[in-house]
Amino acid sequence: MDKVAKQNALNAHTWVGVFLSVLLFLVCLSGTIAVFHLEFERWEQPHIEEMENVTPQAIEKAMDTFLAENTEESHHLYVVFPTSDIPRLVVENDHAAYFSDSDGNLIEKESVSFTQMLVDLHLYLNLPHSWGMILVSALGAIICTLVITGIIAHKRISKDAFKLRRGGNGQQAQIDLHNRFGLWASPFHLVIGITGTYFGLAGIILVLVATANYGGDRDAVINQIFTPDPVIAPQEGKPAIGKAFAQMETLAPEKSPIFLTVHEVGEPEQFIEIYAKAPNRMIYAEGYRFDTAGNYIGDAGYEDGEWGKQLFWSMYRLHFGDFAGLTSKWFYFVLGVMLTMLCVSGMEIWLSKKAHPPLASRLWYAVVWGSVSALALTATVDMFFAGSLIAVFWCLMLFNTAVTVAVKSLTKPVWLMISGLSVLVLLATYFAVNQSAALSIASLQLNIPMAIYVAWSIYRSAVLIRRSKKVAVYRDGDSPGDKNQVGINQKTLGTNINA
Question: Which stretches are transmembrane (predicted)?
């Protein structure tokens, strides 16, 4: 490929990354953390009883109690089974959700405000969903563009595939690390970009496919992806969800029921559908359908459908890494950290080439490490505050920006320290509020990684602060004879501090 094409690709890669760096970083950071969104739901209420299985009788009792206490009209009823990725029994409708113990007694209302805010940040950047999804999907396409242009712009992609140079002023090592992360994990980054783009553009794709192949009939396209509701005789009465659930051991003994939905509650077309995870399959679930009396009707055919239908039903697990338990989630987390660090290192390389303009550099570090601090403090506030966490998070982000502009000492080491201390405040508050439940599996699976982050961030910030003090010593020790060497050392150390 000629030099002009490589240079054009490099220019496109640079400027797209620079102008969209903040949005790309927030989407990548929130997505990396949201890989554990189910674990965060458990973490938010760690004292709830957890179980491996539940009896049909307990499910019936929990739903009967729930309906007696929640009489508002609802088009759907749901039961989340402990055989899902959350080992708890939950009964809910379109308005509220309650946990139940293994005997079918309701415990307390489900409250996962922080998890909802985090997922909303990743999917919509906390914007109105109609166009927030389109923006985030466009960013998914931008990620694909950055991956492709980055590969095209690489001058010696085969020779430099494993090169990581150390020493000097640190800038070359940062460039090498940026290139290695971008190259090694490019298949993953493309998968994330493509699936993320799909989620937001599904509506547009639906219209295009309907126009091209079905004479504009969108319902016809939907019926190809989502199996139409069963045609059954008019139904009435209370749905026999316990009877339906009991049949799963015979109908699909190898599958794990995830949740149950009662569609069109109280209407003649009411029916029950149980979604079960198929082992060794990427699709989200297969649907098993029952009439109101609990008689089996048939399956939805997602598992054995055409490849397009199976691909569609695999998008969720493919995007969030939810297909091989915690193993795949941790794998996605590590790769997500690499993608997030690409956003950070790419911007820092650009700032380095611009001689690290003070205000722009401080603002970037306020976004990178300040967002970690804002998320931690938002989770802390959630333990005492019943209002909008979206407002809390963005007020904290605006406060970080304003303080960074006003206080020149808020450099990268300081912001890194603040982020670690913020997570430490979160952990301390969490232990104070939840006490012994903070030592449960539901808590420790996230508290331990957060404690590791606290230790790393405080250690790393201390290292960077020591380097900055060395720069100050060199400045104070300037002498005419050492002026040139001191200038070189200042430049070298200053760059390393920002590495």
Answer: 12-36, 131-153, 188-210, 330-351, 363-381, 387-407, 414-433, 439-459
